[in-house]
Structure of CoA-transferase:
Amino acid sequence: MSTSDDETTTDRTGPLHGLRVVEVGQLLAGPFCGQLLGDLGADIVKLEDPGRGDPLRQWGRERPQGQSVWWSIVGRNKRSVTVNLRSPEGQDIARRLIADADIVVENFRPGTMERWGLGYEALRELNPGLVMVRVSGFGQDGPYAQRPGYGAIGEAMGGLRYVVGDPSTPPSRMGISIGDTLAAMFATIGALAALRERDASGRGQVVDSAIYEAVLGVMESLVPEWQLTGYQRERTGAVLPNIAPSNVYPTRDGIWMLIAANQDTVFARLAAAMGRPELATDERYATHVARGERQKELDDLIAAWTSTLDADDLEALLVEHAVPVGKIFRPVEMLADPHFRARRTITEVEHPVLGGVQMQNVFPRLSRTSGMIRWPGPALGEHTEEVLAELGMAPEEVAALRERGLA
């Protein structure tokens, strides 16, 4: 087990302790929402199909000893219950669990839950205070609602894919499933907002988080730039046009360093670090607009300087001059970095098969009631007997369901 703060604090339960969440989603968007809520202390009961489970259990490039390390993160703090939601018995179990829940999270194609008798209108009859979080590609209504909507499609239609990559290549992807995780983050915010409103009204509601809208939500001023001025953002590689200097620069020992010194006062400090203080008052570089107009020229000048220094020396010099600088980290650098270690940004969680698994800790940190990782992603159906017993089901009832492939 791991806490996100003080190792001597073993009784932390998180700010959402006491909340019951039933998660019926799979793959990433719904389960990541469940992970975030579970990290902060909610009791996450994850319903999975018997025999198959969440497909995410099989995902990830590396699967040591047949285990998905990705699942160990996304499934952490959850209780796995196997139940066949396509059967009347499974649907009845889901209704009984949801009747006492605060939140239900699902990310199936719109209409799926309704076909199972688990739509919001039916569930709120059982539980008027229920908050139903629904994550989908295109939202719960509109002409595209019934389309399959993976995260990649949301990234494309939300505007992100077009602006990512080098201008000489086709649109690129981010290297992670950013569309799904953004939709999950917006879903989590919506769930917490709905719970806050429930405190006043006593009523639940639906949180409708569409992947393409979540992506669009972080696209800054992309739309009004086009609407008001006709400016279309294009792929620009490692830079943002007219924001200079802010780029990756080479060092003598072959390491790329990111330097962000586009503000006037910060650029002056960079110029001093370079031994070229006159650059800060040179009319070609003295202002934000001037530096933007000469972006490549300025980047070439800085790159010529950084190439004369080793990365560690460059970093130390720029830190001394209060210039934002950072190496391009991979896991090997993260695990060795003293700041990561001091804040326990990466923590070790004991896994029953893999032993100690190092993974990202719980974020954000709360000063009094921080969340914690209580266990990694569980085995399929690990908590079925435990959770169904809480519903009053006898062991022989659960065994009978298992024999029929329903649990």
